[in-house]
Amino acid sequence: MVDLLAGHAEVAAEVEEGFARVLATGAFIKGPDVAAFEAEFAAFSGTAHCVGVANGTDALELALRAAEMPAGAGVVMPANTFVASAEAVVRAGGRPVFADVDDEFLLLDPERAAESRGDAWGLLPVHLNGQLAPMAPLAALAAETGLRLFEDAAQCQGATQDGRGAGSWGLAAGTSFYPGKNLGAYGDGGAVLTNDAEIDRLVRELGDHGSSRKYVHDRLGFNSRLDTLQAVVLRAKLRRLADWNAARRAAAARYDALLADFEDVRLPRTAPGNVHVWHLYAVRVPRRDEVLAELNAAGIGAGIHYPVPVHLQPAFRELGHRPGDFPVAERAAAEILTLPLFPQITEEQQVRVAEALGKALARAGASGSGA
Predict the structure, then answer these.
(1) What's the fold here for domain 241-363?
(2) Cα separation of 357 and 370, whole Å?
(3) 22, 35, 205, 252: which has the fewest C-beta neighbours closer than 10 Å?
(4) Cα separation of 320 and 318, whole Å?
(5) What is the pLDDT of residues 295-354, one digit of tens each?
(6) Which residues contact 179 (CB under 8 A, 6 or more apart)?
(7) What is the pTM of this model?
(8) CATH no. for 4-235
(9) Within 13 A of 342's CA, how many CA atoms are on the CB side?
């Protein structure tokens, strides 16, 4: 689905030089490359502050903790997300409050969020597959109800909505640098983006054992810091990210053209105002599991994001949800099929994917090309 080696080939020399620099200085924790990356990524994202942390889950948890979320507080989020979104809320002492998504873009529906909120304290839209959730109406909802607005930006590095990037709409955004992301490290990594100086200060303290200076611990924190070697990788990739995102948009447009006549394939769309960065190209098809098996058997690295909505995961059974609670998210979970997409994918490879998809649909009893 993602060719990580193709991306590495473009940055290998720069990363090798950076690793040598770090190894020569021994600055493995809080080295100068970390501070440089934080400044560069904040500027790229259009926010005042960036704090590098150990992973994206920690980033969300630290943002919530820095905002002093009360114990047991509810945080509204979409049901169709990776488990880490809800996991971070629970780890921070809160309670996930799920809401359904719109059927066209599969992003958090502001009306459903308003219906689900109850006495919730926070609102956590997820920027899914490379584009932002509808932030203007969600920000309006937060302002009207007093909800604290955060953003799960793990899949949207470089995406904007109405000219604004993730982290600029609410108190803070958490993002992930897992290797398969648009901006991926060579291991785990993450960051908190914010325009709030106090959130920035508290995230730094909480992620460094609650310490503002050595051996002085003002609050109970934990260890969540971005390693210097990962910062070297991220700096090298960040210099290429705008071009890589443009290549992803071109590849998504090719898929749109190649699959336009496939009767039973529902193509992804870009929501109004969004500049999409296509972290994932996820279509919707009937008899999805059969189609996926046929594609994989043909050597196509397709996959699923995500087959079980979070509200139906065993880990969250205590919340008491049942099938049918969030029908749009549940229906999409049975139809989503993620096709291979990365900046270096070739037109020839995409043609092969489209041809294999047509054959897979036919074998599964669905319709391929209408031609």
Answers:
(1) Aspartate Aminotransferase, domain 1 (3.90.1150)
(2) 13
(3) 35
(4) 5
(5) 999 999 999 999 999 999 999 999 999 999 999 999 999 999 999 999 999 999 999 999
(6) 4, 185, 186, 187
(7) 0.95
(8) 3.40.640.10
(9) 19
